[in-house]
Design brief:
41% of the residues lie in helices and 15% in strands. With 403 residues, the chain is α/β, with parallel strands linked by helices. A 7-stranded mixed β-sheet has the order 1-7-6-5-4-2-3, sandwiched between helices. Helix 1 runs antiparallel to helix 2 and helix 3 crosses helix 8. The termini are far apart. 49% of the residues are buried. Bound molecules: pyridoxal-5'-phosphate (PLP). The site of pyridoxal-5'-phosphate has 15 residues, from helix 3.
């Protein structure tokens, strides 16, 4: 088959050897699969021989398998394992790769669930955790120890839209004998292929851009080495049990089919909105990888096929804006999450994040505050007409006192 992204997003992983071929993927909801006597043992991961690839749906099912194979193709990986959520995928790969005494280098700023996991559960499991500014290769190199097993990066990075240089991090990981895991949720495989840049594993919250419709939660780990993915499936999927359901896998497959047209559309709109924000006097700073003002614009051009739909910005008076949102916004919704048809806006209060989630040292806080100040607004630009989005924002800024 062609290896063009748009084609793989629609056809990747399809089989053509069966006699009955529904044109579109079906949901196979069966919990169990008929087997021959002797083919199945008692072990919880008792499957899988060539003739009978499925036995019990927690270990795998045809709808999830199609999603895994398609995502592996889209990310130029070898194999993948899908989970019930992005956090199940992230905790799964980290618990699989790390044990007591192992050292993890993780980004100083990241998705809240990841930050809290690495500072909480992983530390309680005896993993040593260092935080580093992932946008600074020197800082990452300095954080590496002889016991470093994993470098974990997110790019673009939630909520502040800094980037991590994946190829640079991969070199550091290789030299240290560590694995590089990249959370590429904000990019999606239509924008960045971390494995091709040297990462060992990519994780996604499929909930966001990949599924794309805000109606399903899912996650995935994609790797370059089939044996590790297989071990991950048995250890984390089978034993911890957080596998993706067939129905959710089917919804995500359906969303993936349009990823190659959605991502450029989000990016084109987001650029218009980001330019509007940059010109507006109520807005004090904008960070968007598609703007030349982004401090890592050159890296964005190198590493991202398009700048995605996520924007961070700060305003003159966040409290005033917060007070007028409900009566001024017509289209934009104040809500968590991202990567769906509807445009979403969220305020990230710096003191609150620091208290609950990041726990940065003084230098880390100073770095974060240099852009975010007391708080930043994170916007996930959807598929509405960008002029309507700018009008919505304009009305809110005017009412908040920025006219
Ligand atoms: C949402 C998100 C996650 C967690 O994914 P869930 O599907 O909500 O569990 C992880 N990383 C990033 C960057 C995210 O945006």
């Amino acid at each position: 088959m062609s290896d063009a992204f748009a084609t793989l997003a629609v056809h990747g992983g399809e089989s053509n050897d069966s006699r009955v071929r529904p044109v579109n993927p079906s949901i196979v909801t069966s919990v169990n699969y008929a087997a021959r006597f002797g083919d199945i043992g008692y072990s919880a991961s008792a499957t899988v021989d060539e003739g009978a690839p499925f036995a019990y749906a927690r270990e795998g099912h045809p709808t999830g398998r199609l999603l895994e194979q398609r995502m592996a193709l889209l990310e130029q990986g070898v194999d993948a394992v899908a989970f019930a959520s992005g956090m199940a995928a992230i905790s799964g790969i980290l618990l699989h790769l790390l044990g007591p005494g192992d050292h993890l280098v993780v980004s100083d700023v990241s998705y809240a669930g990841t930050a809290e996991l690495t500072r909480g559960l992983l530390r309680r499991q005896g993993v040593e955790v260092s935080i580093a500014d992932m946008s600074n290769l020197g800082a990452v190199r300095a954080a590496v120890r002889p016991t470093t097993k994993v470098i974990y990066a997110e790019t673009p990075c939630n909520p502040i839209m800094t980037l991590a240089d994946i190829a640079g991090l991969a070199e550091i990981a290789r030299a240290a004998g560590a694995r590089l895991v990249v959370d590429s949720t904000f990019a999606s495989p239509a924008v960045t292929r971390p494995l091709a840049l040297g990462a060992d594993f990519v994780v996604h919250s499929l909930t966001k851009y990949c599924a794309g419709h805000g109606d399903v939660v899912g996650g995935i780990v994609i790797g370059r080495d089939a044996a590790t993915i297989d071990a991950l499936r048995r250890e984390i999927g089978t034993h911890l049990g957080g596998m993706l359901s067939p129905f959710n896998a089917w919804l995500i497959l359906r969303g993936l089919e349009t990823l190659s047209v959605r991502m450029p559309a989000y990016a084109a709109s987001a650029l218009r909105v980001a330019e509007f924000l940059e010109r507006h006097p109520f807005v004090t700073a904008v960070r968007y990888p598609g703007l030349p003002s982004h401090p890592q614009y050159a890296l964005a051009r190198r590493q991202m096929a398009s700048p995605s739909g996520m924007i961070a910005f700060t305003v003159q008076d966040a409290a005033a804006l917060g007070r007028v949102l409900e009566r001024t916004l017509r289209l934009i919704t104040y809500a968590v999450s991202l990567g769906e048809s509807r445009t979403l806006l969220l305020y990230c209060d710096t003191a609150d994040l620091q208290r609950t989630t990041f726990q940065l040292d003084e230098a880390g806080q100073a770095r974060y505050r240099a852009f975010a100040g007391d708080g930043l607004w994170r916007m996930s630009v959807g598929l509405e007409d960008p002029s309507d989005l700018c009008a919505d924002l304009s009305a809110a800024f005017d009412a908040a006192g920025g006219a």
